[in-house]
Design goal:
Length: 134
């Protein structure tokens, strides 16, 4: 396991898993607009992967417009806030789809899911933990 807590799994290429991890860091703001990334070698070392694998992950993100390269200065996170906002919506949609699938797998119907989510949101707003009541 690397220091970022990312555990690689065998059902997807490592470079795609790296790209997804970095994509989520951009969406969440952990990596800020315009922030300079470490070198490929430093990132590869930090993630404990081959530099070629890291290069491929970063190239994937560049092709999506999330990173930009400056020949002598390195790679930077995009400053396109609209692109990042769209990425956040995309990431949220994926999380929601996964959540709905899991809820349906345990037998929850649409109205029950909505009730549970509303209750959880209200509890979170009050700083309470959401129990299994209802």
């Amino acid at each position: 396991m690397n220091p970022f807590g990312l555990q690689f799994h065998s059902n997807s290429p490592i470079y795609l898993q790296l790209a997804e991890h970095i994509r989520r860091a951009i969406a969440s703001g952990q990596l800020a607009c315009g922030q300079r990334l470490d070198s490929v070698r430093d990132l590869a070392s930090a993630y404990q992967v081959n530099p070629n694998t890291m290069q491929r992950a970063l190239s994937t993100l560049e092709s999506e417009g999330l990173l930009r390269s400056e020949r002598t200065a390195g790679r930077f996170i995009t400053e396109d806030t609209e692109l990042i906002a769209a990425l956040q919506v995309c990431e949220a949609d994926a999380i929601i789809a996964q959540f709905l699938e899991q809820m349906q797998q345990i037998g929850c119907e649409r109205q029950r899911i909505l009730t549970l989510v509303q209750s959880a949101v209200e509890a979170a707003e009050k700083g309470e933990s959401h129990g299994t009541q209802q």
